[in-house]
Write a structure and sequence with these properties.
The protein is α+β, with helices and mostly antiparallel strands. It has a single domain, classed as 3-Layer(aba) Sandwich (Glutaredoxin), CATH 3.40.30. Helices cover about 25% and strands about 25% of the residues. The protein has a 5-stranded mixed beta sheet. A 3-stranded antiparallel beta sheet has the order 1-2-3, with helices on one face. Strands 7-8 form a two-stranded antiparallel ribbon. Strand 7 and strand 8 form a beta hairpin. The protein is globular.
């Protein structure tokens, strides 16, 4: 699994290394279908990072969510954990992304028995969410935004859900089904 091969070297825990667009750009809308997905590197543990570019060649599901311990986020991540085998049938990697730190992610993942990585968009806070137009500046956390990125790194599908609504998995599954083989 590509996640297991993530590099063990990189920025300080919780920090983001970004490429492509400027974090200061102040993105106000989610990136559209057809846009190149900005590369980034975030921590999945205190000593392990993952770059989006390391997953090139397979579909990637980016699931931005507000906070680990909120009820809707817990339900959403638990649902994705249950549906994970269906995502994997398409060869897709699922990445959860929030502004929580690695230790919070670890506790949350252990508590919910999650079997996919949660990436810490912690410092600079929300920098990757900002690149994708999925950061709520006034609230200091990510939108509930979903992206399916194709094998070549292009956004094939996106969805912005109201923060209080679990978007489910049907849209993701349809987007994966619609990807060119």
């Amino acid at each position: 699994m590509a996640i297991e091969n993530a590099k063990l070297h990189g920025p300080a825990p919780g920090s983001a290394v970004l490429s492509g667009r400027s974090v200061a750009a102040g993105v106000d809308e989610v990136l559209p279908v057809g846009a190149v997905a900005p590369d980034f590197r975030l921590h999945i543990t205190p000593d392990q990072t993952l770059a989006l570019s390391e997953l090139r060649g397979k579909p990637v599901i980016l699931a931005f969510y507000p906070a680990d311990w909120s009820p809707v986020c817990g339900d959403q991540m638990a649902l994705y954990n249950e549906v994970l085998p269906e995502f994997q049938k398409f060869g897709a990697e699922l990445l959860g992304v929030s502004v929580d730190g690695v230790w919070c992610h670890r506790a949350f993942a252990e508590n919910r028995h999650l079997h996919f990585p949660l990436l810490a968009d912690f410092e600079p806070k929300g920098a990757v969410a900002q690149l994708y137009g999925a950061y709520r500046r006034a609230d200091g956390f990510s939108e509930r935004a979903l992206f399916v990125i194709d094998k070549s790194g292009i956004i094939a599908w996106n969805y912005l859900s109201p923060v209080a609504v679990n978007p489910g998995a049907d849209g993701i599954l349809q987007a994966l089904e619609d990807l060119p083989k």
